[in-house]
Specification:
Two copies of one chain form a homodimer. Chain A has 275 residues and is of the alpha+beta class. Chain A has helices at residues 4-11, 15-23, 45-57, 62-69, 75-113, 143-163, 228-240; strands at residues 2-3, 31-32, 39-41, 122-126, 129-138, 172-179, 182-193, 199-201, 204-209, 212-221, 244-245, 250-255, 265-273. In chain A, strands 4, 5, 6, 7, 8, 9, 10, 11, 12 and 13 form a ten-stranded antiparallel sheet that branches. In chain A, strands 1-3-2 form a three-stranded antiparallel sheet, with helices on one face. The relative contact order of chain A is 0.10. At the A-B interface, helix 3, helix 5, strand 4 and strand 10 of A face helix 3, helix 5, strand 4, strand 10 and strand 12 of B. Chain B binds a DNA duplex (30 and 30 nucleotides) through residues 3-5, 14-17, 19-20, 33, 35-39, 56, 61-62.
Chain lengths: 275, 275
DNA sequence: CTTGACTCTGACACCGTGTCAGGGCCGACC
DNA sequence: GGTCGGCCCTGACACGGTGTCAGAGTCAAG
């Protein structure tokens, strides 16, 4: 018979934990002195304690450990738990490894520049949206080519939406696709999110943008004429963190007024996949 | 200006978390309606939110994130945090990978045997102990050779300890070393833990056993004459989990009475290292 | 009997997040 | 102007595994 302290030392557990295991019925002392309340353990209980620790070490919760030790799950149930746990662990190792890469990149950046810049890339899932849109064609991706095309589209879009009594349900949004057959030209979509069903609705097209499982995003502050550095930072991030751009980029106009475009806030979104 | 719900959607955060960040001063809403208490956020605050999320994603605590965002740590401090975090992550990935291997081994075992057996190997650190000991020489590691040598040593040891007024402070303990020059013969140490200083104390030697950073241990139930299967299980575990035995094995007699040796409880300890 | 080491219970803390209850506010529609 | 659905407010509790503390009781050696 060991006192709780001795038993704890033998089993390499804290006294606190032995009391906890007693409280939740996971490992009861062999006897408890009814007068003093002292717990006394027998050497043979080390077997159960050992099994308990082994199971816990694998990452099972105490509730699961109890189920296994008390034989309320059979081999099949245990197998299931372990498979689940293995999946969790694999996921976690992958995530941690990715984090390690990001941290290492950050450290390099600090060492080379002495400070952190553009720490604002966020990896997100994009939900599907419905968008009422107008389109135009620009000569290239350059902001100087895009702006004159996209600017006039918005007032016109708003006007046409009013005609069909549709109201925007969210921010304005733009995206770009290459034009087939012309490697330089860009099809510019100017839209706003709406609740209406997709399909042609009067003078505007309502299209459904699909969900994107992973998109690298960055928030650009200031006029869209100066978006290039922000876009470059986003592209650099994608490359440094081992992703590859996939699909067309979107811009989300979170804040914009024609009077003060330099105060605009725009989120740039680029779908990415693991190469 | 966005309501908390809209802002949460934009930033891919839960409303709950935005309120929490407000409460701990990590991200305050741009304005709060004093009458209703409604929080309102500005688009430009997405910048801070984005930085916050990026830092958090690396595994910094919210307190650390706040320190970084509020510029109360410089690049050097941030570097330190990230290095620390990187070390933690590396450790965790290593540990998780090891766990994965163990789980995979267990799954194989379940699939081949239909159930879990001998799930009682525990990896421990052994603290240094002081031991009063007597020694003898056995012909081989076989229990049939060891027993006749070790059995008589204990009564003699107890007798001699009484002579010098030393009392055991813990369980009995045995360990074995090969005899130099004779590849088969084994030097058997029979000891008990004591508090006394090391060095010769009258008729018994008191030696200090060093700490062991990692030892694979298993608890054997029953007579030591039947220790072989348990020892085999321990050896199998060591091999399956990618360790290598290093140093001499110890036995810790947690429970023993001469009248009922079949009720004995003994912990077998084998120091191990990563190969 | 004294003393020091041990044990008892019960409580609080950590951390990041979800969830619930009970009540107030906003805006769209009639 | 009234009503209603959806949003927002605060405050609280929960999770899980463990540490730590306070205040009181117990054990065993001298």
């Amino acid at each position: 018979m060991f006192t709780i302290g001795d038993f704890a030392r033998l089993g390499r557990v804290s006294v606190r934990m032995l009391r906890h295991y007693d409280a939740i019925g996971l490992l009861r002392p062999a006897t408890v002195d009814p007068r003093s309340g002292y717990r006394y353990y027998r050497a043979e209980q080390l077997r159960r304690l050992g099994q308990l620790l082994a199971l816990k070490e694998l990452g099972l919760t105490l509730a699961q450990v109890r189920a296994v030790l008390d034989d309320t799950v059979d081999a099949v149930g245990l197998r299931g738990m372990l498979m689940l746990r293995r999946a969790q662990l694999q996921e976690q190792v992958a995530a941690d490894t990715a984090r390690l890469a990001v941290i290492t990149a950050r450290l390099r950046m600090i060492d080379s520049e002495g400070r952190m810049t553009s720490e604002n890339v966020v990896l997100k899932e994009l939900s599907p949206v419905r968008v009422a849109e107008l389109t135009g064609i620009a000569r290239s991706y350059a902001p100087t080519d895009i702006s004159p095309v996209i600017q006039p589209l918005y007032p016109e879009l708003i006007r046409r939406l009013e005609v069909v009594q549709l109201r925007p349900s969210g921010p304005g949004l733009a995206w770009y696709e290459p034009v087939e057959g012309d490697d330089d030209a860009i099809l510019v979509h100017a839209g706003v999110t709406v609740d209406a069903d997709p399909g042609p609705t009067g003078d505007v097209a309502v299209v459904a943008l699909p969900a994107v499982p992973a998109a690298a995003t960055i928030v650009h502050h200031g006029s869209m004429d100066e978006v290039e550095p922000t876009l470059l930072a986003l592209a650099a991030w994608i490359e440094e963190n081992g992703w590859r751009a996939a699909g067309f980029a979107r811009e989300l106009y979170l804040d914009y007024s024609p009077e003060a475009p330099e105060k605009g806030v725009t989120e740039l979104q680029i779908p990415v996949v693991r190469p």
